[in-house]
Design a protein that fits this description.
Elements lengths: L5 E4 L5 H8 L26 H12 L11 E6 L2 E10 L4 H4 L2 H4 L11 E9 L8 H15 L4 E7 L17 H6 L3 E4 L5 E7 L1
Parallel strand pairs: 4-5
Antiparallel strand pairs: 1-2, 2-3, 3-4, 5-7, 6-7
Length: 200
């Protein structure tokens, strides 16, 4: 089996590809369809699973290779869609932007549309522990740079050998992944969360 993934913008994937990766995922107890940082907290339960799926489909513009925008990257192995990475301008994540811990100790233009963010990784069962998240993080850096980003941020979690961290918590990615991709620490708003960034 080939362990070198093909990674492309999500608009070059089909809707069935996206469903194969994101449909079974339960990052927040429900099929999230990568909407957790885009829906205001108080509205989360009012938005159905189907509506979240429809939002993802519209945001990715999947099935439209000519689309000028999309909201993530998809990884394939041996023709199977196996991984997802959400990456787009930071301002797209309206719920994330409202969280005080992001801005603690920082002085910058919060509305700078040239600052992008990578907020989610999903790897299908049976394909984890193959380095796909690392490959997607590197691809996200290149993708953001090519699309004109000034910087790319991440909201990583610290992991410790021998200590369990639930998969749902790690959907934002671990510190090690971003460090290897060239990100640097910006701030540490909690014991386990580190905001990281790469400036182009």
């Amino acid at each position: 089996m080939d362990n070198n993934p093909t990674i492309l913008p999500a608009n070059q994937a089909s809707w069935n590809d996206l469903l194969a990766v994101l449909g079974p995922a339960r990052c927040h107890g429900n099929p999230c369809y990568c909407q957790r940082f885009k829906i205001y907290g108080r509205d989360w339960r009012a938005v159905s699973d189907q509506q979240r799926a429809e939002r993802l489909r519209a945001q990715t513009k999947c099935g439209d290779p000519a689309a000028s925008q999309t909201s993530g990257l998809v990884a394939w192995l041996d023709g199977e869609a196996v991984g997802w990475c959400a990456v787009e301008p930071r301002e797209a994540y309206t719920e994330l932007m409202r969280r005080n811990w992001i801005w603690a100790g920082r002085e910058e233009d919060e509305a700078d549309e040239r600052v992008w963010a990578v907020t989610c990784f999903i790897i299908r069962n049976g394909y984890r522990r193959r380095g796909l998240t690392y490959a997607l993080a590197l691809a996200a850096v290149n993708f953001a740079r090519q699309r004109g980003a000034r910087a790319l941020e991440a909201y990583s979690m610290i992991t410790h050998p021998g200590k369990t961290i639930t998969w749902g918590e790690l959907h934002v990615g671990s510190y090690n992944i971003f460090e290897e991709a060239g990100f640097k620490k910006v701030s540490q708003p909690s014991k386990r969360r580190i905001i990281m960034r790469i400036d182009f």
